[in-house]
Amino acid sequence: MLVTDFDYELPEELIAQQPPPERSGARMLLVDRDTGDWQDSAFAHFPEQLREGDLLVLNNSRVIPARLFGRRVDAASGAEHTGRVEVFLTTLREEWVWEALVRPGRKMHAGTQLVFGNGELRAEVLDRGDFGERTLRFAPVPDFFAALEALGRIPLPPYIHRGEQDADSDRERYQTVFARDRGSVAAPTAGLHFTPEILERIRQRGVEVAYVTLHVGLGTFQPVRVEKLEDIHLHTERYTLPEETAHALNAARRDGRRVVAAGTTTVRTLEHCARQGEEFTPHAGSTNIFISPGFTFRAANALLTNFHLPQSTLLMLVSALAGRDHVLAAYRHAVAERYRFFSYGDCMFLS
């Protein structure tokens, strides 16, 4: 298959620039995976779409303020250059070492020194990647993430046009209410719709709720640069499957109960873990699993997800679960009905 097989027309004005006034206020398109039939609804009614005994799995990764603005430092004299440098942290490789996008990049050679704030953070460029990425080693500090919270900005997606300034509300709204483990540079956006009240209604229906962690990295921002699906290789992302979630997944499988994944990041984590052995076992690791039509699902039976970019790997994943023709037809309906698209937009439930 070709990447262009997953294209659709999207008017730019349908790309949500702000979250809905209320977290749970999004519209929701219900899609039958088998027939492709759809029905317009609202996320406030999502609990009623779940069945007693379902296992709902959420990604509890926490978004870090990964955009930093700093200055270059002359290695010989220690003098700071006046030009500003933007650093977008994308993936933690090891302690103090991050993959990052850096602008302007032409002067960011190995050995370049960077300083942020009043020196609270300092870094050295180690090397560069194939598409302009840089590897940075930060100087150890007592609490790196505390310094990042003070100096960094929320890394809103490039299709949200705020210039350089994120809104104060983004620190709360571009974060799920159940976010816990720090490490993502983009929100698991299907989870943004949930509120404590919605989660309580879900539990009252006899639905079990469990969590995985997948730290969303650079791949969610980068366009697909090849023509054929077989040539796609995703960036590696770190994940954790907790003990209680592994037990819940094994029990649901034994009992024949439905596993409902909230978000494509949750699906990728579950499907990667389902291929590590006959049963789910608690562990942490990394994955670059790519899911496209023809994929055999071993864990997820239903999916809550936002609407994704044309020709994106996330749209390919959704098409693998519900069929490309069904998904693209549903997207055309969503466009015609003026649904709001992407991170701060509306959602769909494929069951």
Structural class: alpha/beta
Number of helices: 8
Low-confidence region ranges: none
Q: Mind describing the biggest β-sheet?
A: 9 strands, mixed
Report a brief summary of the structure:
The protein has 351 residues and is of the alpha/beta class. It is built from eight helices and 17 strands.
Could you explain the architecture of this structure?
The chain has 351 residues and is an alpha/beta fold. The protein folds into two domains: 3-63 and 171-350, 3-Layer(aba) Sandwich (QueA-like); 67-151, Thrombin, subunit H. 20% of the residues lie in helices and 28% in strands. It has helices at residues 46-49, 144-151, 170-173, 196-204, 243-255, 264-273, 313-322, 324-336, and strands at residues 27-31, 38-42, 55-59, 61-63, 67-73, 80-94, 97-103, 113-116, 121-128, 133-138, 181-184, 208-214, 237-241, 259-262, 283-287, 302-306, 347-350.
